[in-house]
Write a structure and sequence with these properties.
The protein has 44 helices and 23 strands. By secondary structure, it is α+β, with helices and mostly antiparallel strands.
Length: 1218
């Protein structure tokens, strides 16, 4: 508290908020993890056994509880210190013990703490090993070792069955602990003898900062550790350096650079300006090298689509580098869900979360991925960082222009001499004794700079220090200094002087060290890679503002009605995009990150713009100045980023010219004798001087003024607008699950808290189900959907498929929540198989009795399941589960089947824990009710997706039974056509009106061609209709005919083209499912097929007229301007007449109308008919063709067809040569 009271306005602008030390508490001794003792509790079945004391492992391999030994200051008002979270993330697997025979290299890693409001705090940790001097600790370790040896001698084959069978999380834990890291000695691994060995224990130094200055914090901690392990004491007590970075080093202002001083060397950092991409200090080059360019782009795409992403590596810093690298590249969007780059061992239960997440899991070196059992994998992107490979989910859309995008990224990497291929990067970790560990030729400028800038800090008197700060960076004095060096005044050896002068001549007045050169190179590469990603989004979403719907008059009404409002015209936006972009964009605009982006845009009309949105809008405005284009001219051609050099130059200029130098570390007013230096041991720092900051300095006053101004503005906003608490409540409720669960609570792992977390998951899943089913219904509601902006037929199908894929993902997550034992990749399919096995056993028992129960009770369920199992085209459990969902939804049986599946409570209790969604009775009933609402509309989600499977069809021909023409003596044939393909001509056996055939999926059926060869005595055939049934989906189509087929009757046609419609089911099985989607043709903006029957009309006189050769000659004698049109009409008529098909006069005229509509020629042909000389002889005065006004109106109607693409079935125009 004293820290916050000392300088209340300063901390938001401080470089670091806290400095903490974590390690072993010698007062309490060795403590096993408390969670392990409670593992038997049902609420803790998911906690792995490796978190506590495992007597099967050597004591040196076990992990023990660490503690925060000290942190400074005690508390900061705006960022309270979370002791449990810091301790857990500084040492995610607890304390680690080593002996002199083991490797004890220091390790660096970073972590992140995400608060409920989405704000982040960064931690940077330097872990090293310190000798254990406590006799009690050494004695306890010796005792544990003796107990371990005794147990090993008595139990040759220790059993782990109890831990492996309890749950899938336990098998995950055991697989993580199977592989042990190799030891560096021939001595038996894990042995310890207090009389012979020296015991070491891990200790961690941690800096907590508001911004991710990773390189600066790493260098500071490295120098601090170097001061502890050095043979000579540091120039000043360690308190001076810690106090300096906590209270006297400010955050760099936006667009400025800052230099502050560590123990031995100055440290430089920079912060991007307000119009630039936000700070990202984690090296993207390492992330690209670890995964490869293509793999990283694939993981990036999974992140954009909000899938579950699990990073897997033995190195904590690699986990953080890849996680931060990916989320940094999302600009202008932000990850909205669970984000835990380093998942502590005690939080493995969070992998069971049925929400999108991005988490990192530590592996043991040499661990086998095949033995790693994860709770859910149906929608999981698994990233094995160490082995440089990824596992992607099924049904994965590719990022637009992926090949060109990867090529541009590879070129940027190669320009910095970074391999674009997958490969292990060089180790970036350095030991304290070797840093900066450069060759002698590179170390010489370091020696010069230490003399010139006094890199040792604190050896100068106060006046000299102030004078040095005044003179540093003065170009005149620097030139004089260079001149004196050239005249022979030496400050080091002559060769070192020459190296320094050459460095000055090539790099400017301030020569940089090798480490600084590497940081500058990483910073320039980072920003160029990020600019390539940002350029893609600027191109894809350049016109997004035109599709944002801002209908609310004020912020309060918008927040109140957020869930009911339609904020983005998705259909119009997709219709404006190039065709190759649609598979990705249709999924992406359904994500939470895109919804939040649109929300921020709408709220910006009442509030200050969110920083990322402000930068993005500024880039779009700038792009429009140089590239003005109409939205209709969208192109899928790849546009390369054009500002790579400018972005890198901005960073280099900031680092070349330091804008601000912080106060040097100095002696503090502290008691002499405390904190005595002892090599190899981090001293106990004096809390009284580190908990209190300086009473005033120049930048804290500026910050305090700015803070007061912000406070006044906030108070005015609260007074005039909506109450902040209510506003936050609305915003949280308006956005989907994940917003409140960005990170699990690390401070309280009690059963009650974990139960509450799982209850939030259950509530969130139910809310997501309600939202998705409502959206799916709106998409299918015909005219109502058109009024909401969903009208385009091609976009409608794309959106529908996206929503159904999202529903499949939701059902997989629901069935994965609270799973006891994971079996296979798909939890839903595993449950279906368990149910099927149980019912078959019951059926076998019933068959031994009198009455077989099963066949009469639930035949549709098992028939559908067996259909899916018989499809050899589907190779995986996830694919089978999704096929089952789609087929059940298409048959309008999804809710009924899931209710039947969950009716066996014994199976559910066996498979799921008590907190699982499927064991929450009330929520389960609501869930099934929401799915039942989907029966009110028609879906073809199975038919349209599984396009290559073989499907049995049944054809029934229904004749009109009069004049004894129910049968024909000729040889009939039929051809069934759908949206995907046609069946080909199939001969119908004589005297048979029903046939079945197997064919590759035809899609939705659209047309049937029925005919015969006119052979035999009774060649005439009067057909009422043809019925075709898909035997898998159950859809039945009716193709009305009502015409004769035969010569000398009707129009003499031997072939009829029949247009079908979906028959409404009517039967006991389908009662209650007789609802259907409103017809698509109600939408005036729909690009639909032209119905043949709707365009035919009564055209017999026109047909007869056009078939006459004399009248064709009359057409050719028409006026000159119509010559080209007349030729086209004659060409089409001749092509139709010359076909070998016996389609009759009506059929020919219908075909002519269809071809004219497709090729946009009908409005040109109609005036030819009106001007023909034979028109007065063929038509009465009251006929339409004799009325000029009516003809002109008809031409106007026909011209409207030009706005729509007319697609004709291939079988319809077969044999027409144009």
């Amino acid at each position: 508290m004293s820290g916050s009271s000392a300088a209340p306005g300063a901390a938001p602008c401080r470089f670091a908020h806290y400095f903490a030390i974590c390690g072993i508490d010698t007062d309490t001794g060795l403590e096993p993890d408390e969670l392990a003792a409670e593992k038997k509790d049902a609420s803790f079945e998911f906690i792995c056994s490796c978190t506590g004391e495992n007597l099967e492992q050597s004591p040196l391999k076990r992990t023990f509880k660490s503690k925060v030994l000290a942190h400074y200051p005690e508390n900061v008002e705006w960022n309270p210190f979370d002791q449990d979270a810091v301790n857990m993330l500084c040492m995610p697997k607890g304390l680690s013990f080593r002996t002199q025979a083991d490797q004890r290299d220091p390790q660096f890693h970073s972590f992140i703490i995400t608060k409920e409001d989405g704000s982040r705090t960064y931690g940077f940790v330097h872990t090293f090993y310190e000798e254990v001097t406590s006799p009690q600790i050494c004695s306890a370790m010796q005792t544990l070792h003796l107990m371990h040896n005794a147990q090993s001698a008595t139990a040759n084959n220790p059993s782990s069955a109890s831990s492996s069978s309890s749950s899938s999380m336990d098998s995950l834990a055991s697989s993580l602990d199977e592989a042990e890291p190799p030891t560096s000695s021939s001595q038996r691994a894990g042995s310890y003898d207090s009389s012979r060995d020296t015991l070491y224990v891990s200790k961690a130094m941690c800096l907590i900062t508001p911004m991710p200055f990773m390189h600066a914090c790493r260098r500071f901690l490295l120098q601090l550790h170097r001061a502890v392990t050095s043979a000579t004491a540091p120039p000043l007590p360690l308190e001076s350096y810690v106090h300096n970075i906590l209270y006297e080093v400010p955050l760099p202002a936006p667009g400025r650079s800052l230099k502050f001083h560590g123990v031995y060397e100055p440290i430089v950092c920079q912060r991007p300006g307000l119009g630039e991409l936000q700070l990202a200090d984690f090296p993207l080059a390492e992330a690209f090298s670890l995964l490869g360019v293509e793999n990283l782009v694939q993981v990036f795409t999974c992140t954009l689509l909000e899938m579950q992403i699990l990073l897997y590596s033995h190195d904590y810093q690699r986990l953080m580098t890849v996680a931060e690298g990916i989320t940094t590249l999302l600009f202008p969007f932000q990850w909205q869900h669970v984000y835990v780059p380093i998942l502590p061992a005690s939080l493995l239960y969070f992998l069971d979360a049925p929400v999108p997440y991005l988490m990192g899991l530590q592996s043991k070196e040499g661990a086998d991925r095949s033995k790693l059992e994860l709770p859910q994998e149906a929608n999981l992107c698994f990233v094995d960082i160490d082995n440089h490979y990824i596992e992607l989910p099924e049904d994965f859309p590719q990022f637009p222009n992926k090949a060109e995008f990867i090529q541009e990224l590879s070129e940027v990497l190669l320009s910095f001499n970074v391999s674009a291929n997958t490969g292990a990067p060089p180790r970036t970790r350095t030991s304290p004794g070797s840093a900066p560990c450069t060759p002698a030729r590179e170390r010489r400028p370091v020696a010069l700079r230490q003399l010139e800038d006094d890199g040792r800090n604190g050896n100068l008197a106060g006046e000299d220090l102030a004078l040095l700060q005044l003179l540093q960076g003065n170009p005149t004095l620097e030139r004089l200094q260079a001149l004196t060096k050239r005249t022979g005044v030496t400050v080091a050896r002559v060769d070192a002087l020459r190296a320094g002068v050459s460095a000055q001549g090539s790099q400017g007045p301030g020569a940089r060290t090798a480490a600084e050169e590497e940081e500058l190179r990483n910073a320039k590469l980072n920003v160029q890679l990020r600019e390539v990603f940002a350029s893609r989004f600027t191109t894809m979403f350049a016109d997004y503002e035109a599709f944002v719907i801002q209908s609310a008059p004020d912020l309060e009404s918008w927040l109140t009605n957020r869930e009911q409002m339609h904020n983005f015209d998705k259909a119009s936006f997709l219709s404006d995009q190039p065709e190759p972009y649609l598979p990705f964009l249709s999924h992406f605009i359904e994500t939470q990150m895109f919804a939040t982006f649109v929300d921020n845009k709408i709220m910006s009309q009442w509030e200050e713009k969110e920083p990322l949105l402000r930068v993005f809008d500024g880039r779009i405005d700038k792009a429009r100045l140089y590239n003005v284009r109409a939205p209709s001219l969208r192109s899928s051609s790849y546009q390369r980023c054009s500002i790579l050099k400018e972005s890198a130059q901005a960073i280099e200029q900031r680092l070349m010219k330091i804008d601000h130098t912080a106060i040097h570390p100095h002696l503090l007013d502290m008691k002499i004798g405390q904190g005595k230096y002892e090599q190899g041991f981090f001293p106990k720092l004096q809390a009284d001087v580190l908990n209190t900051g300086p009473t005033s300095n120049k930048w804290s006053h500026r910050t305090a003024t700015a803070q007061r101004r912000k406070d006044r503005h906030r108070q005015q906003t609260e007074h005039l607008g909506l109450d902040n608490d209510l506003k936050e409540k609305y915003m949280q409720e308006a956005r989907s699950l994940g917003k409140n669960l960005r990170q699990p609570k690390l401070s309280d792992l009690s059963p009650a808290v974990i139960a509450q977390t799982n209850w939030k998951f259950v509530e969130g899943l139910l809310k997501e189900c309600r939202t998705k089913t409502k959206r799916m219904l709106v998409e299918k509601m015909g005219r109502e959907a058109v009024e909401l902006g969903h009208g385009e037929a091609n976009i409608n199908g794309l959106e529908e498929n996206t929503l159904i894929a999202s529903l499949c993902d939701l059902l997989e997550r629901i069935w994965s929540h609270g799973l006891q034992v994971k079996q296979g990749k798909s939890a839903l399919w595993s449950h279906l198989l368990h149910y099927q096995t149980r019912e078959e056993k019951l059926q076998h028992v019933d068959l031994q009795g009198v009455v077989p129960v099963l066949p009469s009770l639930h035949p549709p369920f098992f028939c559908l399941l067996r259909h899916i199992q018989s499809m050899s085209e589907i190779k995986t459990d996830v694919g089978r589960a999704r096929a089952w969902i789609r087929l059940s939804l298409e048959k309008k049986l999804l809710s009924q089947h899931l209710k039947q599946l969950l009716s066996r409570h014994a199976v559910t209790r066996k498979l799921y824990k008590r907190y699982a969604f499927l064991r929450s009775d009330e929520e389960k009933e609501q869930f099934l009710f929401h799915l039942l609402s989907l029966n009110t509309v028609d879906y073809f989600c199975f038919t349209s997706v599984f396009t290559t499977i073989m499907i049995p069809y049944r054809v029934i021909i229904i004749p009109i039974k009069k004049l004894s023409n129910a049968m024909t003596t000729s040889n009939p044939w039929v051809c069934v056509s759908g949206e995907l393909r046609d069946s080909g001509v199939m001969q119908i056996p004589k005297n048979v009106l029903e046939m079945t055939f197997d064919c590759q999926n035809l899609g939705k059926l659209t047309m049937v061609q029925l005919g015969h060869d006119n052979a035999g005595l009774l060649a005439k055939w009067l057909v009422d209709c043809v019925m075709v049934r898909n035997e898998i989906t159950g859809h039945t189509y009716r193709f009305p005919c009502g015409r004769w087929l035969g010569k000398g009757v009707d129009d003499g046609s031997l072939e009829r083209v029949l247009i079908g419609e979906l028959a409404v089911p009517s039967g006991e099985e389908d009662s209650g499912r007789g609802c259907s989607t409103p017809p698509l043709q109600r939408s005036p903006s729909q690009a639909r097929r032209i119905s043949i029957t709707s365009l035919s009309g009564r055209g017999k006189k026109a047909v007869a007229y056009m078939e006459s050769a004399d009248q064709m000659g009359d057409l050719q004698e028409t006026v000159e301007p119509l010559g080209m049109t007349c030729q086209s009409l004659c060409r089409y008529v001749n092509a139709i007449n010359s076909t070998s098909r016996n389609i009759g006069k009506d059929g020919k005229f219908q075909l002519l109308v269809c071809l004219g509509a497709r090729d946009r020629l009908l409005p040109q042909w109609l005036p030819l008919l009106v001007e023909c000389p034979v028109i007065p002889r063929m038509y009465e005065d009251t006929a339409l063709l004799r009325d000029r006004a009516s003809v002109n109106a008809l031409i106007g109607v026909l011209e409207t067809l030009h706005d729509f693409p007319v697609t004709l079935e291939a079988s319809l125009v077969k044999g027409i040569d144009l």
